[in-house]
């Protein structure tokens, strides 16, 4: 019977794929799908349920054509199967006859496909179809309804199959049950048709067979388009503002993730990876409440499994961590007094001597007498890292360019034991109160709090030994803390942030004194996991200032990306450290430590030059020039008229190292670089740069 | 930012004197590093001199705070110590009171200290002297003015006030806005 035929061919094809690698040529499945498609195309629109009578007459020549086609295709299927399994279906005379005819026409095939491969008997049936239709219309109808029921069963089976994929034995059992049911129905029919002539009976059977064939084709279509059913109907429901079924979506997400894990073997034929990914993006966005941009961004940055882990981690709050204020108390003493208040805590880890994780507490942890007395501060574990990386020494001058609410600043003060001095800058006026309050509470007496735009700081402060820039960012690493990031961020936001970060980092490096005896370091950090805001910014600064990336001294964390989606960064970017919620159980974070080599504003030292030239050949220089223009523009905005003129001159002048590099590398590779530049996707903030230029021109 | 004028300095020192007594000399002339008093936006800051020197480069409008904030001048130009001065006062305090754990929070919510909450008191506290308030774990939590001398305190009934509240560390939470010059100033 048809269902069995489907079943066996399918399992056979599965077996084939598992045993031997599939040939790149047309697989039985694709062949069948194509066939179904072609048939559909010929007799579009697809048949409604009450199609029988007119259909029977209408499809004459074309039907037989398709039959012959099928015959040849069935051969190929047989080849895959190796003709091994024998179904032992009821061998009726016509079938045998049909088989014989078939064999004569196309060569040998086993009888398992006999049911749906009977062109000769069909031809005969068509001659008598007129009579049959008039006589057996009602029966046909009933048949149809039965078929549709069967069909439903089958589609259910298919669903199951899609879900389990590999429980062949179970499915087989179901199928066989179906078959037996079908058989019994056939028998009852034939008993009621005793008065009919044998030829009429044949015709009747032929009709039933034909209907079944159609259903079969539909079932196949269902089977091949099972993803379609899931894929392309549900979004419509979503569009209708109906409440999305979260459990169904979750199931589908799991299913797609499973397929994507082993795409080669688990994919549905005719579906590209992109189809799956698009579906996954939409589902994840619905399920976790993100906008699709962010989901897509995560999927671009991480593997599918890691993205899932990240999204799950973003649903969980990170553990509450506090930092002991070593200016006032030791960690052991603090832990004791907090435990006495009914706080359950533990050291945050080997990597920090001042951090404590708070599991639960009987008292509000942000309002204990110890807290108010400034013995500790609530601070996420990730924000310890840039301070540890900066490692300020006693007596140094340090600048914190974006200080509020003072967690990092007070940590720096504690590391310096209130010696030296700290410039704590904060641009947002409303955040100044928390900064000042925290500085006072924790007893930080070496700080100067100021309220500048970070980009203007080099002109105000002059040179300091170390600079900490915890740059304002899109916050894609702290989604657990601030869920508005889920929907509120777009590519433009990230581009804007990246632009500001580049400006701030330029300013930070200009504030730093390369000739400092103890320092000359800049630490750049963000609470974002977007590459544009992290590696790309650092890579940019390597081209813009005479700095190198040094190890941050943090013993854990992932390495920074040296390449991302076709962009190659400077190899030393791997010294930067990335931290993830799902890996390190702290906020997503990026830390990079830079050592300033000289106070010049262009990198001209020789070793970096060689690196740059090598990089130039590999096309890593792309987009440098418009980038230069961008930040110069930004700086010029801040600067006075005079400075603007100087800046403009600078901008016109191509940096010496670029000229030299181009000359040395030669015309050929220069061309290559150009093509590399043009072929690379434009940075999203290029628009802004253009705008800046325009506005510049107006001035 | 400017040095304090004579009259201002007098007021500030007078206030400090009630808390630290003769220790005021060590406060003003520290052996480890010279410190100075500066007035900025009606607030008095106690700053190390090298920090002070660098702070001169910061513009008046942009400078928010520096060093330790001791207190501020009110609209009527009276000087008032703020909680920022606590560390300095605690380091040199002459008179101290210790608060029982049960009434710690009461004091930290801005209430006066009652006799019932008084755990310990240092000797020779005069009436109306400035006292630094400690928790029983020796953590400074604010300062106040003693209502009675040490001897008189012993005789008081439990519900009587022994110290009038001036400032407490709870202000860091409940009055965060008061640390930066706002609309009120």
TrEMBL record, chain A:
Belongs to the class I-like SAM-binding methyltransferase superfamily. RsmB/NOP family. Residues 8-21 have a biased composition (Polar residues). GO terms for molecular function: RNA binding; rRNA (cytosine-C5-)-methyltransferase activity. It comes from Ostreococcus tauri. Coiled coil: none annotated. Residues 37-51, 198-221 have a biased composition (Basic and acidic residues). Residues 1-243, 665-699 are annotated as: Disordered. This is RNA (C5-cytosine) methyltransferase. Residues 310-597 form the SAM-dependent MTase RsmB/NOP-type domain. It is found in: Nucleus, Nucleolus. Gene3D superfamilies: Sun protein, domain 3, Vaccinia Virus protein VP39. PANTHER family: 28S RRNA (CYTOSINE(4447)-C(5))-METHYLTRANSFERASE-RELATED, NOP2 YEAST -RELATED NOL1/NOP2/FMU SUN DOMAIN-CONTAINING. Its main location: nucleus. SUPFAM superfamilies: S-adenosyl-L-methionine-dependent methyltransferases (SSF53335). One of its GO terms (cellular component) is nucleolus. The active site is at residue 527. One of its GO terms (biological process) is maturation of LSU-rRNA. Residues 52-66, 74-98, 127-197 have a biased composition (Acidic residues). The keyword Cytoplasm does not apply. It comes from the Eukaryota. Residues 688-699 have a biased composition (Basic residues). InterPro entries: MeTrfase_RsmB-F_NOP2_cat, MeTrfase_RsmB-F_NOP2_dom, Nop2p, RCMT, RCMT_NOP2, RsmB-like_ferredoxin, RsmB/NOL1/NOP2-like_CS, SAM-dependent_MTases_sf.
Automatic annotation (TrEMBL), chain B:
It is found in: Nucleus, Nucleolus. CDD domains: Nip7_N_euk, PUA_Nip7-like. One of its GO terms (biological process) is ribosome assembly. Pfam families: pre-PUA_NIP7 (PF17833), UPF0113 (PF03657). Required for proper 27S pre-rRNA processing and 60S ribosome subunit assembly. Belongs to the NIP7 family. SMART domains: PUA. This is 60S ribosome subunit biogenesis protein NIP7 homolog. Residues 95-170 form the PUA domain. It comes from Ostreococcus tauri. GO terms for cellular component: nucleolus. Interacts with pre-ribosome complex.
